[in-house]
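Example 3.2
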Amino acid sequence: MQRKIIIIDDQNLFATGLKSLLEEIDNVKVIKIIPDGSDIVFKLNSPTPDVLLLDLNLPVKNGIQILEEIRPVFPEMIIAILTMYSDENLAMMTKKLGANAYLNKDADLKELKHVIFEIDINDFYLGNGIKKVTQHESLIEDKFSHINQLTSREKEIIKLIAEGKSSSEVAEDLFISPATVQTHRRNIFNKLKVNKVSELIKYAYQNNII
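Structure, written as tokens:
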């Protein structure tokens, strides 16, 4: 039975090379390549693939946001993350959001075939070379990895700071102590590598955190 595939990746050279590689496999047809996260449900509807190969670092919406959006709409579609981030913590995050596989972009053809033909909608396959990353390690220093290190509580605090609220006001809104707010603020500034509130707010707006 033929397996229909869509690739979501903004690196054209990689995506077109992957398409050519996949189409050399019997019973595989790559329907299209999508370069960003805009209007993603519409783009996946016509026609819907059996397997989606999804990058994480994308314009408009990142792969995590896309995964959150599409999994409830396409419950039977196999979604495989294909990324440069060899981070088991990110892999487990995507598993919780409904991904069926997490592969590094240097995965071999055997792994790709396994994901395309053998995994079930209830499976989660962790690719070779995915590593456990400790708190003190960072494999890749860029905006995507920084943003996805933020906890939901830290994102709440960023939104309140952007509204002009002081630490005591944030503490009151969230029913936590001012000292806890200050600890969160320090962690936020360290993760996003900003030094001032104005830089934090600018970063948050530019990267759709708020």
